[in-house]
Amino acid sequence: SSFFSSRNYFLNASVHYKQVTIVIRTNVIGRLKLLLTLNEIIFVNETDFRKLDDQGESVFSKRVENCYYQGVVNGEESSFVAVSSCNGLRGIIAFGNGTAFGIWPLDGGDRGRRHPHVLYRTKWSTEALCTTQPIVDSRHSRKAAVKRDVTRQTKYVELALIGDHSFMKEHDLAEDVAIEYMLEAVNIADLMFSRDLNVRLSVIYAEEWMDAQRLDAHAVIERTLSGAIEYVTGHIYHIRE
């Protein structure tokens, strides 16, 4: 498949169109027409993007672009699509029958209109599947549905993201590549939360650890969580206040 840029060069090369239609031609599932809308709340102008290194703290050297889209496959109302378009097309295309595909640009080239991409089938790992789902009878289902209808007002959750040193090394210590990956994950989660729970996610702070780990990971998850809470309380909470 190939892809065109969503940047609005008439206004600003770092600003992306609010609505785009992307046609993907594949050898596996034929032609897909994606109807996409820019996720305008994934982060805001006041969002604080920082990197931490041996020189201290500093803001990102380049402006973070909002190139994160959500939508559907044309003709497939139960489908959902969450992709980014900053450097080619990256994300997920899922259908109502449970089939899902990831899309990713091949390495090299300028990631322009004719740049080739890989479309691959994805599935949940065994570890990610819930094996203790209870059987709920129809009476409970109706009660739950009524309860959900009462709270249809959209709720917003503000997020602080941390790219730890091991994560940054996986992305070659490239601040822009790492933040794109993190925001792509938030974009997918936001679409799923908004569809199922009417909850929206918005990033208000993010930091990347360029030089060292600032939090120990333990085999006992409670110890790791306790350390994370201590770090957030001491180093992040006061910033957002």
TrEMBL record:
This protein's name: Peptidase M12B domain-containing protein
UniProt-listed PROSITE patterns: ADAM_MEPRO
Gene3D superfamilies: Collagenase (Catalytic Domain)
PANTHER family cross-referenced by the UniProt entry: ADAM A DISINTEGRIN AND METALLOPROTEASE DOMAIN, DISINTEGRIN AND METALLOPROTEINASE DOMAIN-CONTAINING PROTEIN UNC-71
InterPro entries per record: MetalloPept_cat_dom_sf, Peptidase_M12B
One example of a Gene Ontology biological process annotation: membrane protein ectodomain proteolysis
Peptidase M12B domain location: 155-241
Any GO molecular function: metalloendopeptidase activity
